[in-house]
Amino acid sequence: MNNNNHSSKKVVTRFAPSPSGRLHLGHAYTALFAWQLAKRSNGKFILRIEDIDIGRCNAQFEKEIFEDLEWLGIEWEEPVMRQSERAHAYKDALDNLLEKQLIYQCFCTRMEITQEISNSISAPHKNHNQYKIYPGTCRNLSISQRRRKILSGSPFAWRLNFKKALKHAGDIYWFDRLKGSQKVQSENVGDIVIARKDIGTSYHLAVTIDDAAQGISVINRGEDLFDATHIHRLLQKLLGLKTPEWHHSPLLKDEFGKRLAKREGAHTLRELRLKGVTKNEIWRLAIQNLATNSAKT
Ligand code: GLU
């Protein structure tokens, strides 16, 4: 796939933070990158609040996100979409996947899954990823076993039968602006949760539906989400949604080489602002951080 002409198209892009902590320098980089992408192409910059995880998100953090972005000089389209108000759209998508028989109820608890994985992997040279892959316990439950569990009130999540779904979709590809064309693979993915027991949706489902609903043409985010894009591309195909391009940027790190996380104070935008760092210095600090990281590796 050739992508050399992407700079001439109007880009609709977004910044999609979760208000579960304070924004840090890494977020500023992602947001400013997206903002410039939109500006340069005379396109649109969208801010979306990803607050499906109601237990971890709060209004104070959301307020601070607006303040931080305003301070950076970023302007976004109004009204701002909040995922907590989009349950109906996620439910419709789930119904669609159920109709296609590509999802199933999973009654397992986290502990049962860990137990099952450690029972099934006994070789000393284990594939690290296998620790995280759902072993498929509930995939093969019979109709009566399933019915019994539901009747007894066992809570359940919905999982995507990944291999079946991929077979249904056929060969599919996606394009990363830095790494080029990628083929969606089923290895090391497993049957991911598509709707959690507690919130009735998942990051994967919500982000896919909303990026499509908002007409995002370039999904800009950190490279920690690179692998998740295989899942999102598959969901787009299954749900008949348009395919955007992606730009996964390298992650900013702290002085110990660890990726910046929301809980650490030193790099939050708020903290930097209080220390007297100006908004014009933020971009330079981010670029400097990336250059230092790549010099170390
Ligand atoms: N809401 C996610 C976060 O705050 C970002 C998701 C995305 O950009 O796709 O980490």
How would you summarize what this structure contains?
The protein has helices at 25-40, 59-71, 87-99, 110-120, 143-151, 162-169, 203-213, 228-239, 269-274, 279-296, and strands at 12-15, 44-49, 81-82, 103-106, 157-160, 173-176, 180-183, 193-195, 218-222, 245-249. It starts with 11 loop residues before the first strand and ends with a helix. It has a 3-stranded parallel beta sheet. The chain has a 3-stranded antiparallel beta sheet with strand order 4-5-8.
Summarize this structure as a short list of keywords or feature phrases.
binds glutamic acid, 297 residues, globular, 14% strand, 3-stranded parallel beta sheet, 3-stranded antiparallel beta sheet, alpha/beta
Biggest beta sheet attributes: 3 strands, parallel
Q: What is the tally of helical segments?
A: 10
- The count of β-strands is 10
The outline comes out as globular
The quaternary state of the protein chains shown equals: single chain
pLDDT average, as an integer? Answer: 91
State the secondary-structure class: alpha/beta
**Poorly predicted residue ranges:** none
N→C terminal distance: 29 Å
Output the radius of gyration: 21 Å
As a percent range, the share of strand residues is 5-15%
Helix content: 25-40%
Strand order of the largest sheet: 1-2-3
Q: Helix and strand string, N-terminal first? A: EHEHEHEHHEHEEEHEHEHH
Q: Which small-molecule ligands are present, each listed once? A: glutamic acid
